[in-house]
Automatic annotation (TrEMBL):
Listed transmembrane segments: 34-54, 60-85, 117-138, 150-166, 173-195, 215-244, 256-278, 298-317, 338-358, 364-390, 411-429
Location of the Amino acid transporter transmembrane domain: 34-426
Protein name in the entry: Amino acid transporter transmembrane domain-containing protein
InterPro entries: AA_transpt_TM
Amino acid sequence: MPETAAFDEGMKLNNTDDNFEVFKKEEGMVDFRTVGWIWASVIFLKMTFATGVLTIPSAMYSLGALPGALTVVGFGILNTYAGVIQGDFRNRHPRCHSIADMANVVGGGVLREVTGVWFVLTWIICAASAIVGSATAFNALSMHSLCTQWFSFIATIIIALLASIRKFEHLGWLTWAAFVSIFTAVMIVVIGVTLRDRPAAAPPTGPYELGYHVIGSPTFVTGIIAAATILSSSAGTSAFLPVISEMRRPQDYSKALYVCMGIVTASYLTCSLVVYRWCGQWVASPSLGSAGPTLKKAAYGVGLLGLLTTGCLYVHVSAKYMFVRILRDTRHLQANTVVHWAVWLGCVIGLTIVGFLIGAAVPIFNYILSLAGSLGFAPLAIMLPAWLWLHDHAQFRKGNMWQMALYWGHWLMGLVGAFLTVGGTYGVIQGVIDAYAAGTIGGAFSCADNSGSRVT
């Protein structure tokens, strides 16, 4: 049976039918399908509540508090809806392990390969942000005792070791601890900035301009970079899909999605508004450096596990895609063979090295996240989900008024994603060029700690 026909046949079956799942429950084989929905929600939380939260306050400085808050809520709702589309599509086509498999259903093999490369590139860019954030933490804790690139290299090794853990279930307790770690670190900063008379980075004496605006006046470049940054902070729903294939009950995916996105959106909104209100233009990026040197060390010390685990999850999910893509429908996928382990470890190590190189080339934290948002998440989390919906609801084009409104509304959703892709990528490239010209970036592979600089 052709693969597309098999997908269509799968729609007619109960989605718990093992014949249409990527990982089978077979005696003598590794059982990957061991994740409950609560574990899944924590994994989703750690993937989402990660490096993005550390740069939203600086994005609010560009946009202003009100547009920034509306952007956080708007993208939170849009990304949640895109996650619903992807989850529903996956459970109607249960052989889909990844967003690339979904692209194969709607656009054929060429689109699958393009989407697969796009998926891996996006998540490795995100892993680069975690490497830069972890190097910043090591710098803060050690008072820059080593070159930043050495700290990046150390973080890369730790991330590769953690990412090599083969099953999402075995990352469960680590993700719990990591989420508590990064959430506590953020709260240390949120509370710390409110206890200061003036922002830590502001002049210690005399008058100063806070730079807090209800409505900002950004240029196109700064505005689109800020929007792409906020988009990237909650747009990681494409990484949830491989987790569904390791859930005991894929139908419970929506529970985990709503818990994750509800907590994430509320936390992003409250934490970023407080930090921006008290720091204004003096907010650092990553924001953990905004409450002064003592609390900076405390926040990075507490949050280091969260930053490293973030990188681990980003590498793991991209490596898992490549691993399944290479070994799918062979016995090596679930058997403890030399080929199985060689492919798995090769994917993990290779992708971690690529993440290290990207982090060294674009060492400004918010620019890396903006690049992930515009170049990666706008197509994966907005354009492609809109296409998935249109594929499964083609009959709405000639339905009643409500159905036609939904149909054309999803076309509009795709166009919004296209605008963010083109405009955001241009904005990030121009921003990086301007930063090099202004000397904000010391150079690729330099020892300068560019990642924690104040956003002005």
